[in-house]
Amino acid sequence: MTRALVGGGGRPGALPPQVIAILSAELPSLAEEILEEVQRSVPEYARQEGRQEGMPEPAAYRITVEQAMAAFVDQVSGGGDGYERRDELCRVLGRSEAYQGRTLDALQAAYRVGVQVAWRRVASVARERRLPAEVMTRLAEALFAYIDELASLSVEGYLEVRSLADELPGDHRRLLRMVLGPGAASGALAESAASVGWAVPDRVTMVAIPAGARCVREALDGDVLVNLADTEPHLLLPGGYGPDRAAMLNRALPERRSAVGLTVPLGEAADSLRWARRALGLVEAGLLADGGPTLCERHLLELWLLSDGPLLDQLARRELAVLAGMPRTRRIRMTETLGAWLEAQGNAVEAARRLRLHPQTVRYRMRQISATFDRQLADPAARFVLDAVLRAHRMRERGASLK
C-alpha cells in the first residue's frame, strides 16, 4: 500500500489517485478556512459591512481561492495544462492593489497566510491517513512552489497597472480631472489642453471600467483621456460613441467589460460618468445583461427606475400594500398580469400574448385586480407610479434569477 501511495500512476511526478481523492475532499472547507484566516490576520482584508471602492467583490476572493486550490490539486495529479482562468484571477488581485494605491505587502501577507493554513490542513490529514513521508515531502515542495507561482502572477497584474499609470502624461490626467470638476468650461481647461495639443471637444462620452479589468493602453485612440489608476477607472471619449470608437474599445478592453455613458456637452461629463458607473454596477448586480460594453442609451428606463433602491422599496410597500396579506402564488399571478396589462396599455389581447395566456383568462383576472387596485387604476398619475413600480420589481426578479 505504501509503495502504491508513493509511486502512483499517471504522468511522471504526479501524486497517486488515492492522495488526489483525499485532497479533493478537503477543498470546499479548506477554501472557507483560508478566507476566514486571511480576513482575521490581514487588516486590509478584514470583513467589512460594505465593499471598499476599487476592490473586487467579496465573492471574487472566494472564487479566486477555490480556483487556485482546485488548480493545485489538478496540477499535482498530473492533470490539465491550461489555467488561464486562475492566472487572470490572480492578476486581478494584483491590479486591485495598484488601483488602491497600495503596495503588495498586504497581498503577499495574504498568500503567506493561505499557504500556512493549507499546509496545516494537509499535515493534519496526512497524519490521520498515515500518508508516507515521501508523499508529504513532494506535497510540501509542490505547495510552496505553487504559492510562489500565484504571487508572481499577482505581481504581473500589479506592475501592469503601475506601468500604465506611469506612462500617462501628468498633464493628461489633470485635464481629465478638470473636465470632471466644476470648472470644465473655464479658461484654465483651454490653456491646459492647448499646452499638450488636446482639442477641447464640445461633447464627450464617458466610459466606466471595472476595477481590476485589463486595459491595453496602446489600443486607445490618441485623443482619449484615461485614468486607469483611479479606484473606479474611466475613459473620456471626445465626441460620440460610434462604430470606430466601439471597435477601439473592443481592442483596448479584451474582457469586454465596460459601460458607456451618454454623449453630453463637455460641462456634463460628470453626469455621463455617473450614469456609466451606475450601469456597470447594475451589470455586476445581475440587473442588466452583461453584453459588454453596456450602453446607457439602451437602458435609460432601468437606470431611472433603479437609481434609488431604498426609495423604490418604500414606494413598492405603499403601492402594493393591498397584496401583503395574500398567498405568494396569488400575489405573483396578480402582479404579473397587472404588469403585462399596463405595458399593453389595457389591451387584453396583447397582455395575453405577453403572458402566453388566453385573452379571456386575462380579462377574468383583471376584473379581480381592478377591484383590488380600484383607486390606482382610476387615477392616471397613480397608474403611472404603479406601472413603474411593477417594471422595477420585474427587473429585480430577473436579476435575482441570474445569480
Automatic annotation (TrEMBL):
Tell me which residues make up the PucR-like N-terminal domain: 14-180
* Annotated ranges, domain PucR C-terminal helix-turn-helix: 335-392
Q: Which domain of life is it from?
A: Bacteria
Spell out the PANTHER family in the cross-references: CARBOHYDRATE DIACID REGULATOR, DNA-BINDING TRANSCRIPTIONAL ACTIVATOR ADER
Protein's UniProt name = Helix-turn-helix domain-containing protein
Q: Please report the organism this UniProt entry assigns to the protein.
A: Actinomadura chokoriensis
